[in-house]
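FAQ
Q: What does a multi-component entry look like?
A: The components come first, one per line:
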Amino acid sequence: MTRPAARGGSRASADRLARLLNLVPYLLARPGIEIAEAAGDLGVTERQLREDLELLWVCGLPGYGPGDLIDMAFDGDRVTITYDAGIDRPLRLTPDEALALVVALRMLAETPGVANREAIERALAKIEDAAGDLVGAPVAVRLPGDTRRVEALRAAVEGGRALRITYYTAARDETTERVVDPLRMLMVGGRAYVEAWCRRAEAVRLFRADRIDAITELDEPATVPPQAVPHDLTEGVFRPSSDLPLITLRVGRSERWITEYYPCERVEAGDGDQWLVSLRVTDLGWARRFVLGLGPDVTVVAPVELADQVRATAAAALDAYAVPVAAVRRAPADSVPPGDPAVAAGTQ
Amino acid sequence: MSRTRTERLVNLVICLLSTRRFLTAAQIAATVPGYEHDPDDARDHEAFQRKFERDKAELRELGVPLETGTASVFDAEPGYRIAHREYALPDIPLEPDEAAAVGIAARLWQHAGLAAAASSGLAKLRAAGVDVDPQATLGMEPMVTVDPAFAPLTAAARDRREVGFDYRVPDRDAPTRRRLQPWGVVCWRGRWYVVGHDLDRAATRCFRLSRVVGAVRVTGAPGAYEPPAGVDLISHVARWSGPVERTGRATVLAAPGRAAGLRRWAVEVTAGPDGDHLVLPYADPDGLAGQLVGYGPDVRVLDPPEVREAVIQRLKEIAVRHDELAVSGGAR
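Then the predicted structure of the entire assembly, as tokens:
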């Protein structure tokens, strides 16, 4: 991580050196291990591992005679280190390694609903202890969440049965029931999700834990079809695809925060304080509620359809409050459509 | 690196681990295979020195604690050795469930650099004899992501070095340059922050890492300051963006079957002839108004008047803005 940029492919070589220094104590701790097992454990191919062993075989203590070189005994597909030439322990953790392990353990320990938290905390204490002052690691983690809800969900997911859930879909502002076959639970950006095969959508879906309003375990096992592929979440939960509708908003200063909370395709400076913000939405109905909710500092630029919907919805709502639309217009009164119910009601 | 270079470096590590005396470069060259050269040939000697410097740098990058010193008071030339107790990972007696937790933690990183660091760290634990069950799960796994400023800021906080960075807040037009003595980095509700002493404001400040623009510049020397003793990093961030108490109660009339989102957090729902009366808890009337406006004519506020007025005011302004747009042809 803080390692300087590789100089002419020396990164791969540094990796190999690290691997070799690690290999001797690894094998020393596991006399007679199968080469295939060791390779799998260390994340290298069997062939790479055999090449590493060949190289180590010619390394050793000064003198470099038969009694000085690293030695090993092969028994079929098994290997035993018989002389370690002094590399009997792995190298201590680097600051980056200590940080990566400690922060990930802290995240895990803080995750609401995680199983065996006590073991995570014991492991964390031991790693911190071994890393010593490297991990004055000034990183603190707090992930508040509804632990009871998440634990109940986890128990249901681990039960291995299909689940009937009542789920609120914000994109359509509706609550529906559906049967899902759970895959796993995960936490992304501080929020808990159940990833499951949704029998209604016939696809893998992420369900936000705080939007699952009810859950029933069914009397049948969860059966995830073979075509189900878990989401790639490296880019976040919502990755807008280019076939979704694109909306463009003129956004005043007070509402610019939306550019931090929603993935935006384009943000440009407009007139005065205004920014022109373009983002993809799954549903224009959601976009209408979104724009209305943001308030007066946001105007729809495109599509026209959305601008019309926002205007019509605001007018209809004002009508419900018996506030004549004409009263809010700066345009002359004769521009009000003749059939405008607010005018007809004569409340002005 | 060629096979010969790797071989030379492994032999160098073994040689320096085995010696208690500091070995000079000349002694190392005479011992470790791969450094053979003619010390009397200036060019050959210079090539050796360059090679040896590169190798030392390589070992230090890997974290090999190369010690420098002289073998005796009569020696002027520096020598090298590696102290075994500095080199070796201390014993970490992990129970199987603890080892499983470390194994799971190591695969949570979505950031390539930290993922590599976590897995090489785990490989060292395995080499120390720890067996990690690759099948273990904890039922719930966080995806651990960080902003690019995470690595430089944690390193600066660890080394107590002042930093400078450009910071963009959405409601300002341009990023501002900030100077900070970072105390630590905090993850709060899935977002990352740095907490420290802001040198320009002369006060404690936190900054959201996602708002740091461009590179973090490390400007100060190591050990330049000391964070306050027992500082609680979380409290600085949590105080700044903590949860809110919803003590207000508003009553709205919702059209039958509509406004599913509001019904979910209504504390009371009563069916009536003209729709359902929902009682909604809220903290800030204006915030609630924003939410209610989203539902348009499906939801009408009955009480309190301040929420009702706020909704009507917002609707009027939205109608005007979008109406002007239609009149001026702005959206057509």
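Q: Is there any commentary attached?
A: Sometimes. For this entry: The longest helix of chain A spans residues 10-28.
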